[in-house]
Structures are given as structure tokens and as C-alpha cells.
Amino acid sequence: MPGKLKAKIVAGRHLPVMDRASDLTDAFVEVKFGNTTFKTDVYPKSLNPQWNSEWFKFEVDDEDLQDEPLQITVLDHDTYSANDAIGKVYIDIDPLLCSEAATVISGWFPIYDTIHGIRGEINVLVKVDLFNDLNRFRQSSCGVKFFCTTSIPRCYRAIMVHGFVEELVVNEDPEYQWIDRIRTPRASNEARQRLISLMSGELQRKIGLKVLEMGGNAVVGYLQCFDLEGESGLVVRAIGTACTLEKLSNPQPPNAAAQHTTANSSPSKDLKEPVFGEECPPNPLSSGPSTPLRAPGFSFSPSKSYSRQSSSSDTDISLTPKTDTRHEAPRATFFLCPSSPLLLLPSDMAPPLPSSSSATLLTPCPLGPEGEPASLPSLEALSELAMLRKSVSFSEDLLLAASGMGSGGSGGKDAGPLKTLLRQQTQTALEQREFPFFTLTSFPPGFLLHVGGVVSARSVKLLDRIHNPDEPETRDAWWEELRQEIKSHAKALGCHAVIGYSESTSICEEVCILSAAGTAAVLSCRLLQDGCLDLVTEHRLSRQPALFPSGSDRVEFDLGSSGSLGRDVSKALLPVCQSARLDYSRIGLDWNQLAASLEAQVASGSQRTAERTGERCEDLAPPGCGFCHIPYDELNMPFPAQLSYCYCCRRAKVPDVLFTTIDLPTDANITGKGCLIQARLCRLKKKGQGEGNATCISSLLPFMEYELHTQLLNKLKLRAMNALFGLRIQISVGENMLVGLASATGVYLSALPSPGGIQIAGKTPGDLSYEQHMSNMQRKINDTINKNRELYHVNPPEAVEELIGSPIPEIRQRSRLFRSHSESSDELSELDLSHGKKDAFVLEIDDTDAVEDIHSLLTDAPTPPGFFSCNTEVMPGINNWTSGLQMFTSVRVFRLSNANLTNQGLNKIFNELCENLLKSLYFKLRSMVPCCLCHLNFAVAVPEDELIQVAVTAVAMSFHRDQIQDSNKSGEDRAPMKVITENEEQLQFPLELSADTTSPQGHNTAKNSGPSDGSTGGLGGRAPSVDYSSFADRCSSWIEQLRVKAHTIRRGSIKTTSSTDRASPLPEGRSRSLRSTRSFPGSSSVTVVKMTPLSFIPGAKITKYLGIINMFFIRETTSLREEGGVSGFLHSFIAEVFAMVRAHVAALGGNAVVSYSMKECVFMENPNKNQAQCLINVSGDAVIFTRETDLEVSSYTQPQTNANTQSNNETNEDTPA
Amino acid sequence: MSVELDVFVGNNTIMDEDVYQLWLDGHAVSDAVRLRMESGALRDCVVSVEVVQSDTMDQFRTFQMCEKLLQSPAKLANQLLFQIPPHKQAMMIERYYQFDNAFAREVLGKKLSKGMKKDLDDISSKTGIGIKSCRRQFDNFKRVFKVVEELKGPLVDNVRHHFLLSDSLAKDYAAIVFFANSRFETGKRKLQYLSFQDFAFCAGQLISYWTIGAVGYSVMEDMDVDLEKEFLHNLKDLKVLINDKDMLDQHKSLVCAQLRGKIKVFNEMEANFKNLSRALVNIAAKLTHTKDVRDLFIDLVEKFIEPCRSDRWSVGDLRLFLTHYTSSAHMLETFRFEPIWDRYMGVIKSCILKMYHD
Questions:
Q1: Is residue A1131 over pLDDT 50?
Q2: What is the pLDDT of residues A555-582, one digit of tens each?
Q3: CA distances in angstroms from A104 to A8, A86, A1150, A1154, listed in the order given
């Protein structure tokens, strides 16, 4: 299908002087697309030429449109010699191919030269006329939207999440072709830039095709990487999550996906009604047979066949039947889902959307808290009923749900034929999804049911030349292998999905470490649907019930999946420590297994019955803790772990530590704040070649992982926290060392048990001075823990245990044994010995190394006052951001002068390097205090023998200090991760807000008086006073909402702190808006473009996504000293990259880049030759955002009275602000 | 172990005004680090020298990269490399073009040529201003001069527009350009007591009243870097005031009548009137020669200010005298050059008053 690309060259400015004689330039421009080139006239003797050219028109295939960049070259005309190139601009026209994104590219672009950097700017206009594509065998995938953001983009809602997409293209690296010997560095760099641009265009197109085949229209969490394999070639690979997104027509209504706050409060008012009423009347709000509501199929479509090489049309054909089924017999199945919760739940838990049919279903089942045996048959009967009625074709979610229920409830194996059928179906369904992976790190509320833990796999490969670029099977097979392993790890954890999934490589010479990591999880298909349905028209009437996934469903699934999946999988359990498998090609390591083996525990079988009953009367899984509940079967745990009852709901088991690669779910219950936790490690290795080298590396890997894990765990304990989010482990290989860096954000999950202290124990008792030394150290450790408790406001509710008097083991009696790492190779085999009761978390000091380790543990400098840091999207526990925002990149290269370093020495140096870097950042950004460094992303590399390179990209965001104290006072942050954006969005919907009061916590407490009161009970006591104070404020109309809220709560007489959380940011919002206007008085002629690695901009609303920014630059110099040495060179290059990103965003009409990341920063120098070269790859999403202030105003004025609120609420949705 | 490379780049360029000043003052990184550590501004945060060193290096590098843009400030606003909020841009420009009065005083009236550069070392050691800073200031003078020299329209406005400077700084630059262009003598020993601000004030007066732009010709037509030739030529006519004996006497008696009892130095004034009047008128009459224009200030000091000072005139007395000296001329029946006289005396009066101090 053809398209017409039009480009116009308007003007240039600040051009460099090209003619020394006149101090001027005779510039003209070449515009090239594909093989067609146009030229402008020469604009003589000017540094600010005005070409104002005609429209250059290119008639091209849309395949080319996707692959090729528009190439603009500015030259200096020279009559006598060859024209000198001034520089180039590559414009990716992909955003123009998507109807929803930009329509025109227009603006000033920096003219970039790989040798000289930016040399002036050029003003260009680009448009595309696309013709409709009717060809079904097309190779292009125009219109598929790409997002780097790893959550559902803010102004979209997900209709369907299809699953994993991946693609990889391979080519020869121009740098290593013979021709490179005879061409100039500039020509070589440009060839490389162009090739990579082409390759990533092709990659994107191919992924787009896969998405189209799956029926999706977007890729979320798109992660594209380059592997510069040197001699053996150049690999560009990408993974992502295919989705069907729908743009929210009105930017105002809360995006169900992004709007986590509303989601917190799942049980809506009408849901609560039945709780207090005795019976369960059919929900009056739901209108008639609401089947169509459910109907839009939110199913995971099978993705297996898309896994590779979509370009071939064979796959196409093989696919069609599957897709067809999905389309033809789509949503009839849905009855199962809504009905299922009913089945297992006490009658007071009416489902949010009782359709007429489900209501009828309800009647026959004599449900109640009698227990599963009763409920199970009825479930099956019912599902049968439903299926019969609707002649179901199984969509996967249904299957999942059904199977989950079936097997979960089945105490005995007396399931009927239907059940067998269901199980079979499930299995096939699960298997159909070859890789149930999701690159997303945060999910629509209710989507994430359980988190198993981190699963990761690494594999060491020897690179060989890729002979046929068109068939990169080897590279493909490598990744395939790795993914399979990940999948099996996830299975072992009783999980059917891997979320927060990412892949990376580290290459040194011919050795390549491939790494893949994610978080094993159980997802709810149905809840995703719920979350998405909020805007379906009918739902307006029954808005609350539809909007909020009811917790009951969640529990239901919880029960089901943990039962069935866990059990099924346990049969095929992998060896406890996979790292034992040390063949050079593959190293698999399951972090959880490691975690478990480090933490000895005794699973008490006697608790089983207790758990059962707990599960049975479990009507609502509080969203704040549900995800912590173990997905695996307690009796057949894949690894030894210490379980205890959830400290929030007391109804399900939770592990004592939880590691994940995802962002903290927004509705998670946490205590205090989080902080960045890093484990750093260097290991020397012999220089080697070929297989020997690879073997050597792969034998080192498990030890490194083990030690990183140990460090993480120790540091976590030292901070009195119990969970890690956003865990990212990087192991980089150099010629003579391996460097490992694990970063994560530690938090205290209220649902998990409080971490015990750390006790150190010496091996040689008797020596007095030694003892003294030990006790000294012990005191230091205790002090640190206490200090950290204070610093992060981690005050675990100690009172809880007394209140409850439950069979939960005392925290302090928890048994743990911890052996500090020593180099002994029998370490791994010893892991299993750690079963057994000991009295504390013991660090055994058996040699000087261990002493060093503990020292290094304590040397982590605390963050300076006013600073917080995390590597997740936002800091848990902080929710009152200002608009102050500073994204930065910092790079450091250290030279290890002493070649005879020991591992310990090396570790120390590396540790210092990272600490100093952080210190520098804190110092640099001190003017932003109070502030939090978010999304701290460290990248380590070993570019040369004795060099270690650390690159950090993060954003510093300032927040209002006074509010911290507020939240401290209120003790427990109910929904701490709420970002101001969301709060304000929410205020558009006062009624929802009022409904919030019945948020899960309050709900639970109300209902489950007795054992499960726990922490929430204590909280309820404190809350009213807080509530009062906010009443006293009476500053704006949100008071009205509070009043509504107060009204609704009266019955339960319980008030959660969430209301204060929600209400308070508003006045702040005002002052913030003032501040923001103050900070940028006047406007410069250049659009201010914000950049952030986060998916949102605090205090602002993203109104439009303009397309993906994915840029690759090379910069080289032959006059390193003159450019200010390596630092000067890299400094200006990074600044130039920022400038080019900003210029492209501005040209698309945007004013911000979100989800920005620097994927690659390869720096090479040769100081002797006065040369250096650097490659940088950056990506992000170009967006338009608007300050929330305008919206705020409208939200203040709107709901004046209670009576009006509802209608206002309704109209509000329709009228954009 | 050594840090090979250390870079920090923010999307918004981060800069510390104190560090910027240190850079402008021409300190080396090591000096700047020491000064920062000593200054006490960092007392609140516990930082090591390395951290301050790294930060200072980084900012110095940023400033260095910005320097090219600062040299043509208009570019700073529409360049794409650094994202700097407008108010910060303004601060950067203003500070970059700020100069030390002591330095400007040394350079004032000299030709801003390359040869001058050699003298910078002397100036640096004499004034205690860092040599780098001296170079920057000198280059700024030269750059502004070069750009503004050929431009039409009001000098101050030109400076302000082309270099985006504040009013007061633009005026100072106008003075420097004006002095450099007319090459006024300012270096003589007798003029040493005058500060840059004294001269800048005088320059402002000259620019405002004695140039072509001053009399309201079309702004586009000419510039006001040069004094108006015609006016200077006409000044010759004022000679009548001293050449015509009657007029001189009459003038004297008019002034004396006005001032009797009002000034302390009446007797001295009465005795000296003719000399003083002659001095002022002669200065006016000589201004047709470029050489004498250059000597305007030295003449004022030697011929007028010094005699008055030796008679211990107070500033108040001087002001009264000059006021009445000027206005009395209007009462002379045969004196026909009032406009020129006023234009001349207005400037001379304010210049003298400004220059009349120790």
C-alpha cells in the first residue's frame, strides 16, 4: 500500500561557519527517503538560511514508511571541491502513520554530525498521506501503537491484553565490514546509525504485524535492545505486551487502568448493601440482563504461534482458525465469571454485576459458609448450566477461572466429567500461550492476584558469526530456551504468568550472557475485564459495581489457583536449586528457591485446616494484601519457605519475604516508606578464550547470584523491611571480572511478617577481644536497624499480635538461619541444611571475608535528610509530589589502577563507586529537597580490562514536606502510592469518592469482627480524629464529598485513613500550581520538554501519546583533549542526545517524554590516539500533558451539593474540561 | 583507583549561582572547590571534598559549554542544547556580562585592540582580578563594541537588545563603547581619582545630550556612538562669552548678584569668575578637534575642578554657581546661542558635579 510522504525544508539557524574566508556558509539541503533524493537551492552566504523549499514528495510503500527514516543532510556548497557535509537529521516518521498520534512533524531539529556533534538547527515540516490498506497479506503494520510505558498508558484503557510479543533482527555490523577500512569514521558511523534505524524500524513493523495478527492494536511495555556482538554482527531485539487499547474519549474520566485510587476502593456502595442486609437482593442498579457488559471478550488470545517470524504468511494461515474462534464465538462464556464468585461466597457478597441470568443462577445454590464440599458441586452444576445455555467456546480466561475454581475447591477428586473437561481445557489453554509473559510492571487494579516471586534465568553463549541475517535462528533459539526456563520456574511457583518480564545481555568479546527475569504471578483475566469495563455505556448506571473489581472474585481465584495450579505443578517440581546445573551454556537460578533455602522454615501441617476454614469464610480479599498471598500449595511448596497468616486479612498464607520485579501495586498496604536497596559485587576471573572462558563465567554466575541475593536480604533486614520491588539484577562480563549489581526498592508490606533482627555469631567463642568485637558489631547492627526504622517510618504494628491471639507464630520466634557467604563450593549443598528452628536471623562470621561483608553492609551511607530514593516508579509512602521534576543521566568510569586486586578489594571499590555516585547525586539535587530519586536505574559495564562504567538515569521529584508528617501521624498509609494526578482525577467524581469509604479495609473490619480485625481495627480507632480535622478545614467543595463519605460510613463507624490521604493533596495542589507558574515566568522560544523515566508527570495529565521515541546516536572524536577530555566529550554528547530527543518531541507537538530510558551507553576511548567513541540508545513515549490546575478548578466548583453530585458526575464524564 | 570519567547531565541544566560566580571569577576547579568548602554555604550538608570536586568540575564544564552561547546571548534563548528556564538564562547572561568596575576603569577609553591583551596581565595583577576573568571582561567589551559600533539607533537600546542585558548594565556597556570609540583620555594621573561610575555617568550625559541621537533625528539614520559634529562646531560661537569684555563683565555681575550671601566661597568665586568662565568656554570651543575631545575630562579637571577644589568649594556651592552661571547667560542681551549654551552647560554641569569629589 502506498503512502505519500511530504517534506518541506523551511530554514536553518546557527549554522557553523564553513567558509573561513567569509566566515559564512553556503548551505543547501538534501532530503532522502529510501532511494529518492531531493535537493534544495543553495542559500548563499548565511548562517541562518531561509530555504523555504517546495514540498518534496516521496511515493512509497508503507512498509518502507515504517522501516526507513527520513534523512535530511545539510551541506555546504563548494564550487571547486566536494561539498562539505554539515550534519544530518534522521526523522522517524512512524508517529505519523498512526491516526491517533501526531499529524505533522514540524519544528527545529538539531543538525547532528557524528564527529562534531550538533551544528546548528534546521526547521522541517513533514506530513504523510496514507491510503487505506485493504491487503490482508500486507507486510506493514501501520497504526499499531507502541508504548515504552510498562503500564496501560494513561489516556487509554485496555480492552484486551493479548500477551507476549517478541522479534529479533540480525545484521552485519558496518563497523566490522571490510569497507570500514577505507571509509572515513563519519561515513562508517552514519552507515551504522542508518542501519540500526532501519533495523529498529523493521523490528517494530514485524512486531506490529504480530500484534495485528493477534487482534491487538498496541504494544505496551515495548523494550528494544541492541546487542553489539562485534565481529559476529548486530542484533536488534524487542519484546512487548500486545494489547487492544481504546482511547478514552474524554480525558477527564479516570482511566481505569491508570487510576489506581479508585480501584483501591473496590467494594462499592451497593456492594456493601448486602453485607449489612441479611439477604442478597438482586442488585437494583444493574440494568436487566447485562450480559453484554461482560460480553466484550477480555480473553488472552493464544499467542504461541506468534512467537516468531510473523513475516511468513504460513503462520498467518495457521493462526486464522484460532483468532477466528475468538472472534466468532466470543463472549458467550462470560457467565461463568460473574457467577463464580457467587458460588463460593456467602450470600451477602453479591457480585458487582448480577445480571439477570446470574441472579437466577444464584437461587439454586444454597451457598453459605458451610464450606467447599457444598459449594463445589454447585459450582460445577452452575457452570455447566451456564455453558449449556450459552454453548460456550472456551475462551482462555474462562477456562482459567473455571479450572481454578474446580480444582481449587475440590478437596476430593470427585469432580464430574465437566471438571475433567475443564482441566483439560485449561491445560491446553495454558499451553497455547507459549509464553504467558508480560512486560508490564504495573497492572490495572484487580488484575494481579498473587505474586510468587522473582524468576530469572541466565545463559552463557559463545558468539559466532551470523551467516544468514535473514534467519537468525540461533539467537532466537537462545532466547526461546531461556524463556522456557523462566516459564518452568514460574510453574514451579504455582504461577501461570510472568510479569515485569525483561531480557538483557552482556557481551565481552565472544562471550555473551543472556539474562531474562520476571515475577511469577497469578493473574486474573476477569478482573482485567472489570477494570476495563468502567466506561461501557451501561455501566454508567451501575458505575461503582462495574468499576471496582470486587474483592470477592479475587479471593475466589486466589483459592482456586493456589489450590490447583500449585498442586499440579508440584509434581513436576524442579530441583530446589537450579544453579546446580552448571553446564556452561545455561545457568538457571530461581531466586525464590534461593530465598527459601536461605530462610529455613518448618511448614506446619496442622495449620492446613485452619487455612482451609480461613479460606472458606474469606469473602473479600483485601486488595492491599491479596497479591502477597502465596500462589503455591502450602503442602507442596516448591521450596522451603516460612509461611504465616497474612497480617492484613489473616485469611491466607504469606511468605516472610517477597521479591518481585514489578512496581508496587498501587493498592498494596505498606507501612512507612521504601528505599533503594542495592547489592554490589565484583568477581575476578581469569582471562580466557572460547569455551573455557564461557565455562568459567557460567561457573561463577550462580555464586554471584547467591551472593547478590544474600546481600539484598541482609540489607533488607537491616532496613527492617520485608519486600523488594522493581528488582533488577545485572551481571556484566568483562575480560577479567564479572560485575553484579542488583537494585530494588525495599518496602515493608503490612501483610508480611515483620522481619526479625540480624544476629551475628562468631565461630570461635572464648576469645574475649573477639567477643567484644562481635558484640560491638551486633550493637552497630541493632542501632542501624532502629535508625532505619525511624528513617523510613517502619513501625510495624506490634500490638497486632496481642489483639489477635491467633495461631500465628510469634515473629520473634521465627526460625531463621543464615550463613554468610564464604567461597566454599559446598555452600549450595548446605542450603538445605538450613531447615530447623533457630532463634534469630543469624549471620555467622567464620572468616575475615565475612567480617568484611558485614562491614560493607553497614557502610551503606544513609540518604541525606530530605532525600529518598527508589528504583520503582514512585516512592512507596510519598504521594504529594510537586511539579518539580529533574531527569538526569550520570555516567562514571573508574579505572582500577592496581591489577593485583582481590575480590574483596574489588568489591569495596565497586561499592564505594556506587555509594559515591549516589552521594554526588544527592549533593547535586540538594536544592530540590525534600525530594525523591525515582526510577534510579543503574547500568554497569566493564568496557575494558580495568575499567568499570556505571551509568545512572533517574528522575528527582520534589514533594511537599508537611504531608509526610501528616501521613506519619496517621500511622499506616492505606494507599500510599497514590500520585497526585490520580487524586485529582478522582475528585472529578465525588460520588466515587464517597463510595471509597467502603474501601476494602473498612469493609473487612466491619464484617470480620473478630480475629481478622487486626491492624485495621487499631487504625479505625485513630481515624475519626483525622477525619475531623479535615472537616474543620472546610476549604473547598471536596468537603461535601467528605460529608457524603462520613454519611456512608456511619453505619460501620469505621473510617480508614484513606480519606485523609485522598483529601489532603488537594489544597496542596493549589499551592503547587502557584509554584509551577512561578518557576517558569515568561516563555522561551523553545518548547520546554520534560523528560522522565516514569510513566506519568506529577500534577499533570497526559492527554495524548504521540508515538514512541527510539533513537540511536554515535559520536566520535579525534580531538578528545580539545573537547575537554572524556568527561567533556561524553557530557556534551549526552546533552546533545537530550536536545535531540526534546526537539523530536517538540516537533511532534509534544511537551514531555515519559518512560524515558537510556538503553545503551557504550563508551570507548583511546587517549593515546586522542580518540573516543560513544554510542547511546534512548527511548521513551512522546506525550502532550496539561497541568492539572485547570482541571482542579473545575473540580472545585462542580459538586456544590450532595444532591447535585450524581448528576454532575454524569455530565462530567461527557464534557471534557 | 581513579575516576576516569564523571559526568552528570540533567534535562534541565542544573547550576549553582555561587559556582557560576566562581567560574566567572576565573578560579581553577581546585580553587573553587576550596572556596566552596570554606564558604560555609555547604555547611548544612555533610559532603566530602570528592563530591564537591565532582560537582564543581561538572558545573564548570557546563559553563564552558554554555560560554559560546553566552557570547551571543540571543542564541541562548533558542538553542536546543541546554534546557534552561528563562529567568536562569537572564541570570547567566547578566552575570556573564557583569564586570568589575576596577577593571573597566583601567580599560576605559583605551582602544579595544589585540595589543591591549598584553596589558591584561598588568591589570590583573594591579586590580587583583583573576586573569581569566580579565580576559572574559575584556572580550565582552570588545564583542559588545564590535557589534554595536556599526549599528544605528540608540546605543543603550542596541546593547540591551543584542545582549539581552538589564538597563543599568546596558548603560555601563554603552559608556564603555562610547569611551572606547571616542578614546577619551582617562588614564592620566590627575584622573585617577575618578571611578568607572563617574565616567559612566558622564558618558551617559554625553550620549544623551551631545550625540545625534540626542536631538531627535530619526533613530534609523545615525548612531549615537559619536558626538554630533555640528554641535561641536557651533560650540565655537560660545567664545563670545569670554571674548566680549562687556558680556563677560555683565555675566559676572549677574552671577554675583544671584549668589551673594548664598555661597561660602563667594569672594573666591568673584575673584576667579573670569578664569572659570574662560576655562569652561575654552573647553567648549576646543571640542572641534578630536584631540581636544579626548582631553575633555582632563581639561575639566585641570582647568575647572582643581581650581575650585583648591579654593575649597563645597559641592553645594559649585552646584549653585553652575546653575546660575548657566542661567545668567540667558539674561545677557546680546547672547544669541542659548540652545547651544544650555546643551553644553547641562552636560558639563552634571559632569563636573559628578567628578567633583576627592
A1: yes
A2: 233 322 333 333 232 222 222 223 323 3
A3: 11, 25, 11, 20
CB atoms within 10 A of CB A416: 14
Q: Inform me whether the C-beta atom of residue A1113 falls under 8 Å from chain B C-beta atoms.
A: no
DSSP string for residues in A995-1056: HHTT-HHHHHHHH--STT-HHHHHHHHHHHHHHHHHHHH--STHHHHHHHHHHHHTTTT---
Contact B11 A947 (CB under 8 A): no
**Secondary structure of A412-479 in HEC code, one letter for each residue:** CCCCCHHHHHHHHHHHHHHHHCCCCECCCCCCCCCCEEEEEEEEEEEEEEECCCCCCCCCCHHHHHHH
Q: Which residues does chain B have within 8 Å of residue A1136's beta carbon, measured at their own beta carbons?
A: 81
ipTM, interface predicted TM-score of the complex: 0.88
Question: What integer is the mean pLDDT of A150-171?
Answer: 86
Given an 8 Å threshold on Cβ–Cβ distance, is B7 in contact with A1124? no
B56 contacts on A by Cβ (under 8 Å):
none
Nearest to A923 among B5, B51, B77 (CB): B51
Helices B315-329/B245-259 angle, 10° precision: 130
Task: Measure Cα distances from A962 to A378, A959, A969, A1026, A1067 in Å.
Answer: 54, 9, 11, 15, 12
Contact state of A889 with B9 under an 8 Å Cβ cutoff: yes
- Would you give the end-to-end CA distance of chain A in angstroms? 39
Q: Which residue is it, cell 516537533?
A: A1147
Chain A residue numbers with beta carbons less than 8 Å from the beta carbon of B9 are 888-890, 1131, 1134-1135, 1138
Asked if the Cβ–Cβ distance from B65 to A1080 is below 8 Å, we say no
Q: Are A244 and A159 in contact (CB under 8 A)?
A: yes
Residue A42 CA to residue A586 CA, distance in Å, equals: 59
Cell 504468511: give the residue. A313
Higher pLDDT, A201 or A446: A201
pLDDT of A76 reads 92
At B208, which amino acid appears?
S
Q: How many residues does chain A have?
A: 1217
Compute the distance between CA of residue A508 and CA of residue A942 in angstroms, rounded to an integer: 8
Test B5 with A892 for CB contact under 8 angstroms.
Answer: yes
> Considering only CB atoms, which chain A residues are within 8 Å of B61?
1124, 1127-1128, 1131
Q: What is the pLDDT of residues A447-499, one digit of tens each?
A: 788 888 888 899 998 887 666 666 667 788 888 889 988 988 888 888 888 99
pLDDT number for residue A604: 29
Mean pLDDT check: name the lowest of A184-188, A348-352, A891-895.
A348-352
Contacts with B, A 56-115, CB within 8 Å: 108, 110
B chain contacts of residue A923, beta-carbon cutoff 8 Å: 45, 47, 51-52, 55
Identify the weakest region by mean pLDDT among A698-712, A805-819, B283-297: A805-819
Residues A7-17 have pLDDT tens digits of 999 999 999 99
Put simply, the answer to whether B7 touches A891 (Cβ < 8 Å) is: yes
A737 vs A182, A445, A583, A684, A945, CA distance in Å?
35, 43, 19, 4, 8
- For residue B110, the model assigns a pLDDT of 81
* Residue whose C-alpha is closest to residue A909's, from A743, A680, A741: A680
pLDDT tens sequence across B114-163: 667 778 888 888 888 888 899 999 999 999 988 888 787 788 888 888 89
| All residues at 6 or more sequence positions from A1088 whose CB lies less than 8 Å from its CB, including other chains | A1080, A1151, B83, B85
- Cis (ω within 30 of 0) for the bond into A1098? no
> What is chain B's length?
358
Q: What is the mean pLDDT of residues B264-274?
A: 84
Determine the Cα–Cα distance for residues A557 and A446; give it in Å rounded to an integer. 11
The CA distance from A1088 to the nearest CA of chain B, in Å, is: 7
Confidence at residue A976, expressed as pLDDT on a 0 to 100 scale = 39
Amino acid A1212 reads N
pLDDT of residue A1142: 94
